[in-house]
Write a structure and sequence with these properties.
Protein name: Transcriptional regulator
InterPro entries: CapW-like (IPR016634), WHD_CapW (IPR059019), WYL_dom (IPR026881)
Organism: Enterovibrio coralii
Strand content: 15-25%
Radius of gyration: 24 Å
Length: 300
Amino acid sequence: MTVTDRDTEMNEVSARLAYVDFKLRFTGQVTRADLKSAFGIAEAAASRVLTEYSKQRPNNKTQKTNTIVREGFEPLVDFDAELALGMLANGFNSNKLFGVTELTYEKIGKVPNQLNLCEVAMITRAIAGSYSISCNYLSENSGNHEMRTLVPLAIMHDGSSWMFRAFDRSEVKNIKFKNFHFARVRNVTENFEVKADKQKDGEALSKDEHWNLRLPLILKLHPTLSEAAKKQVRTDFGISEDKDELYITERAAFRWIVEKKWFIDARTEAQKKEDEENGIRRFYKFELCNLDMVQQMEGV
């Protein structure tokens, strides 16, 4: 065996052990089938990987079910929270762990210590295990920072922030399915041991009407834009030079996020009139042309 072959084999073993560590930490369990699917290896090879991991981290998982032992879990790999969430969304990629890229790459404007890795892992394990968590949430829309009971359901990324969709058991109003920012969660505890803390039928993502409703959004370049500004928006959004409209479909659960990030004017006529009377001028790139239809679909 050449030095190159030996190095390749070592990298493959390291990647497989890192995968086991990743699955345990962020989903709570790893199986031989997971390893076979991820690396195309046989059952016997998958068993050897799990055995080797147990040798290196004997207190991290149970031997029979290969589930995480939370107390005293000692990570084998130092994961970054954003990297872990990206892999949960797009699949495990050992190249990212080892800093291997096809082209020179650097993320711009990375906020240090924005996400608490341990709390992110507790939330993603709750999604994988279908159980609830308790936490405080620093909402930007309300002063309610009291302890909540959430049932996390899915992770999302809007291009700049990581979020998760959850059923809020503490909410007294009708809308209980909501979006939450990972960065605003505090004091997370997992509720995985009691049956009552498990996800109930009415709390599943399949019952989330706004998640499952896809809205057609007809966006028109905002009339307040100058011709130069319209040209720039056309360029940024891939709109033909002879067009003023952009048609997209989006989950109802994400409409407010898209409106905020894309500067979409979704005001009613009454709201527009009120702003005009009060001398309020807002910057918009688009106007939502089919607001009435969207509101009807949403049941507003």
